[in-house]
């Protein structure tokens, strides 16, 4: 039972029906926002309270708000899917709620109870129900819960006032080219996170530290950047916002182990389960980049892909770095990659039975 009830303060929509229909016809990713947002405030003195669903719009924030200076902020990403009968569901939301609690602990922010996290998702999705794309598309309503230090204070300590919001954005494919093989740039200059740092937390700082690498990737004609571990610069961590997998010819599905410096992806965990279900041997271990590149050359590794809530599962077609370039398989979309993607999205859109009980009705 949620302690926060998120009453809706207004039912006036900010976007007209015809404009919403235009947006939903081609939502892209992350550029359009809905009519409402959920909010709750925490204070050191009173804990969580003041919850509501408000019209979506700019926030009022002191220029001295701690988040603007010290980056005390965390977020989550999950999706609402419409099923053929019109109902709206989300995927493993407790896993996101629990990860947000772990991120909160690492960033010295207050933990939001799982039930309140779920209540906030329900509240915003109910208010924004017309924004959940039709079941006939492979589109969804992307939900972005986030929490930040809003106290007006310039000393360095954990904020005593924290604001939590959930905004929503109709989402098509994360990559502008759709589900096409990615060109991935291996940066030898930047690392995303280091030992003992915040790499496993979903905090803005990790994404900020990925941006120069992403720019370097784009300047070299690549879609994404791959970060190596900060200590040895030898093993694969992750992309700017996605975990990485490799499939071997003899049926092993490899992914970097959770070392504390990579994100514990909900999609990553779900893929490990679906892959094991279909008889693949799943291996979480240190993946040395040079060995992976050698195994691409010998054909030992046949497929690679990136995954995350936003990106779902996206094939990797090739790697590039200052020292050369390497093709994954024939450079196209791997068969197992696409089969896993199909199975995952079939579960999310209710097209096959939810045998692991991963769906929650919103
Ligand atoms: C997500 O996949 O939900 C993320 O938060 C990652 C970001 C690249 C959009």
UniProtKB/TrEMBL annotation:
One GO biological process term: L-valine biosynthetic process
N6-(pyridoxal phosphate)lysine, modified sites: 202
GO molecular function: L-isoleucine-2-oxoglutarate transaminase activity; L-leucine-2-oxoglutarate transaminase activity; L-valine-2-oxoglutarate transaminase activity
Pfam families: Aminotran_4 (PF01063)
Catalytic activity annotation: L-isoleucine + 2-oxoglutarate = (S)-3-methyl-2-oxopentanoate + L-glutamate; L-valine + 2-oxoglutarate = 3-methyl-2-oxobutanoate + L-glutamate; L-leucine + 2-oxoglutarate = 4-methyl-2-oxopentanoate + L-glutamate
Cofactors that this protein relies on: pyridoxal 5'-phosphate
Pathway: Amino-acid biosynthesis; L-valine biosynthesis; L-valine from pyruvate: step 4/4; Amino-acid biosynthesis; L-leucine biosynthesis; L-leucine from 3-methyl-2-oxobutanoate: step 4/4; Amino-acid biosynthesis; L-isoleucine biosynthesis; L-isoleucine from 2-oxobutanoate: step 4/4
EC category: transferase
Keywords from the UniProt entry: Amino-acid biosynthesis, Aminotransferase, Branched-chain amino acid biosynthesis, Pyridoxal phosphate, Transferase
Family: Belongs to the class-IV pyridoxal-phosphate-dependent aminotransferase family.
Protein name according to UniProt: Branched-chain-amino-acid aminotransferase
Native species: Brachybacterium faecium (strain ATCC 43885 / DSM 4810 / JCM 11609 / LMG 19847 / NBRC 14762 / NCIMB 9860 / 6-10)
């Amino acid at each position: 039972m949620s302690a926060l009830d998120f009453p809706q303060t207004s039912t006036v929509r900010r976007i007209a029906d015809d404009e919403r229909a235009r947006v939903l016809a081609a939502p892209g990713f992350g550029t359009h926002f809905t009519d409402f947002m959920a909010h709750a405030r925490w204070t050191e003195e009173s804990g969580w309270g003041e919850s509501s669903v408000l019209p979506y719009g700019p926030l009022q924030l002191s220029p001295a708000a701690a988040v603007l200076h010290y980056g005390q902020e965390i977020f989550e990403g999950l999706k609402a899917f419409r099923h053929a009968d019109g109902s709206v569901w989300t995927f493993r939301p407790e896993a996101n709620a629990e990860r947000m609690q772990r991120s909160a602990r690492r960033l010295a922010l207050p933990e939001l109870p799982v039930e309140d996290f779920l209540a906030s998702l329900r509240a915003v999705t109910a208010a924004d129900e017309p924004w959940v794309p039709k079941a006939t598309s492979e589109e969804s309503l992307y939900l972005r819960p986030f929490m930040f230090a809003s106290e007006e204070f310039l000393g360095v300590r954990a904020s005593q006032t924290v604001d939590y919001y959930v905004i929503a954005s109709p989402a098509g494919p994360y990559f502008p080219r759709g589900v096409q093989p990615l060109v991935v740039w291996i940066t030898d200059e930047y690392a995303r996170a280091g030992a003992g740092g915040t790499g496993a937390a979903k905090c803005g700082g990790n994404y900020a530290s990925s941006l120069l690498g992403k720019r370097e990737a784009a300047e070299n004609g690549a879609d994404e950047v791959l970060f190596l571990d900060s200590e040895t610069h030898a093993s694969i961590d992750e992309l700017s916002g996605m975990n990485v997998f490799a499939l071997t010819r003899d049926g092993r599905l490899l992914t970097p182990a959770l070392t504390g410096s990579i994100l514990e992806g909900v999609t990553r965990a779900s893929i490990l389960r679906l892959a094991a279900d279909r008889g693949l041997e799943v291996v979480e271990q240190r993946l040395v980049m040079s060995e992976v590149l050698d195994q691409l050359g010998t054909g030992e590794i046949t497929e690679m892909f990136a995954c995350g809530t936003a990106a779902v599962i996206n094939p990797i077609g090739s790697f590039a770095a200052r020292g050369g370039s390497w093709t994954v398989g024939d450079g196209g979309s791997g068969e197992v990659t696409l089969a896993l993607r199909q199975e995952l999205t079939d579960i999310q859109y209710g097209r096959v039975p939810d045998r692991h009980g991963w769906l929650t009705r919103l």
